Amino acid sequence: MKPLEEIKIWLEANLDEERYSHTLGVADCAKELAQKYGLDSEKAYMAGLLHDCAKCYDNETLREILTDKMHCDMTELLSPKTYHSPAGAYLAKEMFDVEDKEILDSIYCHTVGRENMTLFEKIIFLADKIEPNTRDKSWRKHILEVLEQENGLNEALLECFDYTIKSIVDRRLKMCLTTVKIYNELLDNVNA
């Protein structure tokens, strides 16, 4: 893996100022969540740092990566807003020499999620939604409170999916079937 400072320099040069601030916030939040849940905090920091590394590319370039280099399923190509996640995993491996499967998988699924997400994937997903630098402060406060409840991580994820699904429906955008499956899985986990 390339040195941390080299990665930060590349990200700062290639992401706009707000996206770079978001990226640093996700990395810090991922590190904190990893510590809370007994996971490798440095690995979580790296995943958070690289989660949006593909955001600087246009949709056409991202689609080419997904279809030509990764051969993604067409269901993953319903919304250009999600292209950067799987493409980011590819770029993390190819550009930054990341070999750690846990980091790559968490980057891959940080936007849509996946069924049976690992604890590590869940905290990277959540860190992206509640980082302190660019996300709504009251939303972050609410989710941090939810995390303190019994089964708080699944409850917090369910809250995020509630919000996302309502937003998709309100904007009349296509919804990936994986989103519905994850929502149902989270409901089962929370209600168990």
Secondary-structure map:
Blueprint (H helix, E strand, L loop, with lengths): L3 H11 L2 H20 L4 H10 L8 H11 L14 H13 L4 H8 L10 H12 L6 H11 L4 H19 L6 H15 L1
Per CATH, which architecture? Orthogonal Bundle
What top-tier CATH class fits best?
Answer: Mainly Alpha
Mean of residue pLDDT values: 94
CATH superfamily annotation:
Hypothetical protein af1432
Global structural class: mainly alpha
Output the radius of gyration.
Answer: 16 Å
Proportion of beta-strand residues:
under 5%
Major beta sheet, specifics?
none
- The structural domain count equals 1
CATH-defined topology: Hypothetical protein af1432
What global shape is seen? globular
Number of helices: 10
Calculate the terminal CA-CA distance, rounded to whole Å: 40 Å
Ranges where pLDDT stays below 50 over 5 or more residues in a row are none
Helical amount: 55-70%
Q: Oligomeric state of the chains? A: single chain
H/E series, N to C? HHHHHHHHHH
Report the count of strand segments: 0
